[in-house]
From TrEMBL:
Keywords, ordered alphabetically: Transferase
UniProt xrefs under Pfam families: Acetyltransf_1
Annotated CDD domains: NAT_SF
Entry superkingdom: Bacteria
InterPro entries noted in UniProt: Acyl_CoA_acyltransferase, GNAT_dom
Transmembrane segments: none
The protein's name: GNAT family N-acetyltransferase
Domain N-acetyltransferase residues, every copy: 4-170
MF terms in GO: acyltransferase activity, transferring groups other than amino-acyl groups
Length: 191
């Protein structure tokens, strides 16, 4: 097999990322507007250097995975977040928005490598930890299991986290336009 190429997510990747995101997560998960907003939330300047926390993975010219991460202090802490339980200041936490790997390429370490790259970039931006909401209804709860293997700790569970998005056009692959899937709020502390 060829080598997987990892690089920061740029505008040139948007159409492929939208296609893969909607294929894996359900129609309406990603749009042109969302990908532009989400990508910009991961970029900040540190010591005159632009640091991007979102990455893509290509194999033989085909997008096989991506991770979107928001920079610390550049994402909304909403009712689905439990900052009192994080053990680090909220302003020091980045947000792992999504990790997506084409089902034909899972088990090759692509998701783990994308996470490692995002963590290194977030640390350059000054983050001390990363928060995420994992899809507990993923097949065999694979999302939570994967994140746990990567060092994450469970903070809280939130039923109906994605319900509002489903009412605004996100078609959950399990629930349709009335998503009731549960989110596991998890944190990874950076060494």
């Amino acid at each position: 097999m060829s080598e997987v190429i990892y690089q920061p997510l740029t505008v040139e990747d948007f159409s492929a990322v939208i296609k893969l995101g909607n294929q894996v997560h359900g129609d309406g998960y990603l749009t042109d507007e969302k990908i532009r907003q989400w990508t910009s939330k991961g970029i900040s300047s540190q010591n005159g250097e632009e640091v991007n926390t979102s990455f893509v993975a290509y194999l033989d010219g085909q997008l096989v995975g991506f991770r979107i991460t928001f920079a610390a202090n550049n994402w909304p802490i909403d009712k689905w977040c439990s900052p009192a339980l994080w053990q680090v200041p909220a302003a020091s936490c980045c947000y792992f928005k999504c990790n997506t790997v084409d089902e034909n390429y899972r088990g090759l370490g692509i998701g783990k490598k994308l996470l490692q790259l995002a963590i290194e970039a977030a640390k350059k931006q000054g983050a001390k930890a990363g928060i995420s909401h994992l899809w507990k209804q993923s097949p065999n709860n694979s999302a939570v299991n994967y994140f746990t293997r990567c060092g994450a700790q469970h903070v809280a569970s939130h039923a109906g986290k994605w319900n509002e998005e489903s009412k605004q056009g996100y078609n959950c692959i399990l629930c349709g336009f009335d998503c009731q899937c549960e989110a596991a709020e998890m944190i990874i502390y950076f060494a």
